[in-house]
């Protein structure tokens, strides 16, 4: 009897699928019962490709635990080496149809036209899906490649390597941010004219910066008024709660956070140190700027009452008023000077230190650079390098997705007391040994 020509589709449509017996291997060839035409000996192979086996009156299409039966009168096995899809996915059945069919009268199993079309459709679908996934990944890649832009809002450009902006840049480099590669900066300076800060803040907002950095309370206030969405990080001398920048130190709220040096809180400590080094001190002048260091002025008034000191107000609103203010202070009988931290005073450190020496006024300053770089007598305040490191960490956290409202405003843990013995000798002042013993740094 001639071999019956059946495609796999015909087999699947005519006969039901059933599991192989647990005792028979998918690749096992059964011995022929026809002694005149014996078949090959029984072998066991662990190949993944399918077989079409004619045994007596039964045709078996075997592959991975499935059996299709048909009637025939020849013992014959048709097989071929599997391609990539056959070896990987086996004999794929879909709604009763397989991917590969035995050819008629040949030793090779050839795919029928319909199954070959099904395979091509699957390949085309896979290719289209891959193209779509690649296309969808382009916007995400473009978004990842966006370089964060930091807006820098300050009074004047930094001129010293240990200034806040320079230290923050170094700390950001230590955190992996390289300017021009994965971070950029937009600088805006008021050049001593604080009334320009609101316009400069609006300009940074129009530039669509990702974050605004500022070192002064007026700058932080201008930035907060300019945007409710762009994150703002400040480091300042004042009290951000009293200044209305944050709701509280623990929960700043909205889009702002930062670091405060709590200078107003330690204004009384500076007066206390002045009283220790100046014999019979009774009247002290306090240099401040209305609208910039109001809190420090109020704290100084309270501390002076507790220490039994009279206080003289040295209000300075611009650079031209410094010389007149010093003359009025000495005329009023002031024998010492306490300087509050303001953008105006910090921009004129050398001038203030020289005028204090000229008028022979022992002075205490809020920052170490008044002493180290400008020749002032002594300073007491927070370790500013600590605030710069923390600000850099805040920037890193925000750029990685943390909301400013979830970052508490931090305060300093370390304070520095610096004395310049050379400046003391210049005005004829002797520093008591017990005061020298408490200093963190002595300049000789």
Structure commentary:
The chain is α/β, with parallel strands linked by helices. It has 3 domains: 8-116, no CATH class; 149-260, Rossmann fold (3-Layer(aba) Sandwich); 267-382 and 414-443, 3-Layer(aba) Sandwich (Rossmann fold), CATH 3.40.50. 35% of the residues lie in helices and 19% in strands. It contains 15 helices and 19 strands. It has helices at 8-14, 84-89, 113-144, 164-174, 197-206, 217-226, 267-277, 294-307, 322-331, 343-346, 349-358, 369-372, 384-399, 421-426, 433-436, and strands at 17-19, 51-55, 58-63, 66-70, 76-78, 93-94, 97-98, 149-154, 184-189, 211-214, 232-236, 256-260, 283-288, 310-315, 337-339, 363-365, 378-382, 415-420, 441-443. β10, α6 (217-226) and β11 (232-236) form a beta-alpha-beta unit. The longest helix has 32 residues, at 113-144. It starts with 7 loop residues before the first helix and ends with a strand.
Question: Which helices and strands, and how do they pair?
Answer:
Elements: H1 8-14, E1 17-19, E2 51-55, E3 58-63, E4 66-70, E5 76-78, H2 84-89, E6 93-94, E7 97-98, H3 113-144, E8 149-154, H4 164-174, E9 184-189, H5 197-206, E10 211-214, H6 217-226, E11 232-236, E12 256-260, H7 267-277, E13 283-288, H8 294-307, E14 310-315, H9 322-331, E15 337-339, H10 343-346, H11 349-358, E16 363-365, H12 369-372, E17 378-382, H13 384-399, E18 415-420, H14 421-426, H15 433-436, E19 441-443
Parallel strand pairs: 8-9, 8-10, 10-11, 11-12, 13-14, 13-15, 15-16, 16-17, 18-19
Antiparallel strand pairs: 1-4, 2-3, 2-5, 3-4, 6-7, 17-18
Helix pairs in contact: 4-13, 5-6, 7-8
